[in-house]
Protein: Plasmid stabilization protein
Amino acid sequence: MTYRVIVEPEALQDLINIYTFISKNDSKNKATTFIRELEHSIASLSEMPLRCRKSYYTEDELTRDMIYKGYTIVFNVGETTIHILTVFRQKSF
Structure:
């Protein structure tokens, strides 16, 4: 089964903030490349989204976390859709 991936407004703002941060602290080219790679990784959730771990941030079995280069993508699995809820940088402990 293929799911439709929907990026919620909060997650879209997260992606914009990530792009802005990388472009200010490194370069626009690196920011663009990173966001493209991150979006590709998010799009891959359309196939087998349950491969990702159950979210650390909720008890809901259908809310999952995907890790990509130090970022956590929190998403919810519906019957036919994947809702990207938020994207944030993991903190090192």
